[in-house]
Amino acid sequence: MRIANNWRDYELIDASGGERLERWGEVVLIRPDPQIIWQTSVPLDPLWASADAHYVRSSSGGGNWEFNKQLPESWIINYKNLRFKVKPTGFKHTGLFPEQAVNWDLCAELIKGANRPLKILNLFAYTGGATLACASENVEICHLDAVKNMVEWASENAALSNLQNQKIRWITDDAMKFIAREKRRESKYDAIILDPPSYGRGTNGEMWKLEDSIHGLMESCVEILSDEPCFVLLNSYTTGLSPSVMAYLLKMTVGRKYKAEITAEEIGLPVTCTGLALPCGNSAIALF
């Protein structure tokens, strides 16, 4: 497992009883996590009882935040040279997946190692963690997400990180439709980053289910890779989509056209109270 252990402004303090106890800057939150099927046997951290806010699931679906103190609408946290706006949203999220820092670092390292100008496509790019990590290495990158508010949030994060003048193309669109247009335009990319949701909808309500759509998406991505690509990085949170399955998928798509070294493994977060690591998804990468 690759563990995101370089954070200073984020900490997974404890994980027990289906919930995470987390510190986001100076704010302590409790959020649900269905993977946490255990009860911590050691004495619970006292912050469980004094967290600033708690997202409580509803028996009818969804949930809501219960606040124990007045919090700002949003606040800023840092990761190395990057800055992000975070806030409690209506869907338990904060606008950032901190475990993805391992992939931000990996992308930055691969860009440095390429020693050449790169053109990168970031699909399902959310609030821009990977986009900013790449842009900080002075590459040309296209940031695409189907949700306009997320693209705007990512652009705000770029400004917070003093990257607003980098070569970032901000696109709100359905991934498959955008790739089809790029193919017609004969646009090519040296690297592609994908962090697709398990379920979702496109800009016009198109239904997305990862298991049904990911193979076709990866085949389309192959068609817009350059003649000398650098990497393809695929991330997934979908239960049952193991690292081995993701590696096999890359071999059956990217690996059919290019000679690539393909690896896959879990990514996770260190848990302070137990010294263990919480699995938070899987990543597969093709290196050329």
Task: Note the main attributes of this structure.
alpha/beta; 26% helix; 288 residues; five-stranded mixed sheet; 8 helices; eight-stranded mixed sheet
Q: Can you walk through the features of this model?
A:
The mean pLDDT is 94. The protein has helices spanning 47-50, 101-114, 129-135, 148-160, 175-184, 210-223, 243-252, 254-257; strands at residues 2-3, 10-16, 19-24, 27-32, 53-57, 63-67, 75-79, 82-86, 119-123, 140-145, 168-172, 191-194, 199-201, 207-209, 231-236, 261-270, 277-287. 26% of the residues lie in helices and 33% in strands. α2 runs parallel beside α3 and α5 (175-184) packs parallel to α6. By secondary structure, it is an alpha/beta fold.
SSE arrangement:
Blueprint: E1 2-3, E2 10-16, E3 19-24, E4 27-32, H1 47-50, E5 53-57, E6 63-67, E7 75-79, E8 82-86, H2 101-114, E9 119-123, H3 129-135, E10 140-145, H4 148-160, E11 168-172, H5 175-184, E12 191-194, E13 199-201, E14 207-209, H6 210-223, E15 231-236, H7 243-252, H8 254-257, E16 261-270, E17 277-287
Parallel strand pairs: 1-16, 4-5, 9-10, 9-12, 10-11, 12-15
Antiparallel strand pairs: 2-3, 3-4, 5-6, 7-8, 13-14, 15-17, 16-17
